[in-house]
C-alpha cells in the first residue's frame, strides 16, 4: 500500500498505542504481539498477509495505516561466494543498501542506519551522499527481516550495522531496532 496522505505508518505507533487500538476494538491482549510479529518478524508487506488476524481487524488497520516496508529495487549477487548486495527503496523514495554475507555456520546481514551520512570520512563512498535522514527503527530492522525471510533454509542470525550511516548518530532508532531484532528475529 502506498503512503497516502490520510494514512499513517503503523510502525510509528508505540506498543502502547497499538495495544490501545486493539483494546478499543475489544481484541484479546495477544493481538498486539501477533501483529508485531507480522511486522517485525516476518516483514509483512500488507495487512492481508496477517492471516491469523481477523479480517475485520485487518480491514480496520488498512483503512487507517500503511506498512512502510522497504522494497527491493535491485540485488547483485557475487558468483564467488553468494554475497548479495541489496538496494532498498524506502516509502519516501529514498534508497539504502544492505548486504547479505553467507558464512559456514551462520550468515550475517550488514544493514544501514541512515540515508547518507553527515560524517565525511574520506575513504567512504557514503560520505559523498551527504546526510539525507535517519532511518526509523522499523526501517533498520526490516532490512534484516526481509533478507532473512528470503532464506528460510539458512541460519541468518547475525546483524552488523556497518551499512550506510553512523548508527550512533541515530541512537534511539538503532537501540530500538536492535531490540526488535532480538525480540522478533532471534
Ligand atoms: S558511513 Fe561511516 S565511514 Fe562512511 S562517512 Fe559515515 S561514519 Fe564515515
Task: Give an account of the 3D structure.
The two termini are 28 Å apart. The chain is globular and about 55 Å long. The protein has a five-stranded mixed beta sheet, covered by helices on one side. Strands 1-2 form a two-stranded parallel sheet. It is built from five helices and nine strands; from the N terminus they run βαααβββββββαβα. It is α/β, with parallel strands linked by helices. The mean pLDDT is 95. Bound molecules: iron/sulfur cluster (SF4). Iron/sulfur cluster binds next to loops.
Structure, briefly:
This protein has helices at about 15-25, 30-40, 55-65, 135-150, 170-185; strands at about 10, 65, 70-75, 85-90, 95-100, 105-110, 115, 130-135, 155-160.
